[in-house]
Amino acid sequence: MTAKEHLHRLIDELSDSALLEAERYLESLRRVESDPLWQALMAAPVDDEPLTAEDIAAIEEGKAEIARGEGIPWEVVEARLFPEA
């Protein structure tokens, strides 16, 4: 069975409500595949520079803020980033 045949089978087995989510996901994959910026990002070398003392301090500060409950819930971040969703 080819990958396309397997995907068709999976789609046929999804509920109507799951189909909408699957459609959105597949559309985003299709857009990304032809996006030159995305392709450039995927081809870029991995950043392998070591963390500086400043980087580590910032990470630790962020972890402490989250531990104190000062973080922003994902739902709020998502609403700010994707207001039309």
Summarize the structure.
With 85 residues, this protein is mostly helical. The chain has helices spanning 3-13, 16-33, 36-43, 53-67, 74-81.
Describe this structure in words.
Helices cover 71% and strands 0% of the residues. By secondary structure, it is mostly helical. The protein contains five helices and no strands. It has one domain. The model has no long low-confidence stretch (mean pLDDT 92). The chain has helices at residues 3-13, 16-33, 36-43, 53-67, 74-81. It is extended.
Key words describing this protein structure:
single chain; about 80 residues; mainly alpha; about 70% helix; extended
The mean pLDDT is 92
End-to-end separation in angstroms reads 36 Å
Shape category: extended
Which class best fits the helix and strand makeup? Answer: mainly alpha
Major sheet attributes: none
SSE order, one letter for each helix or strand: HHHHH
Number of helices: 5
Low-confidence stretches: none
Strand-residue proportion: under 5%
Helix-strand blueprint:
Blueprint: H1 3-13, H2 16-33, H3 36-43, H4 53-67, H5 74-81
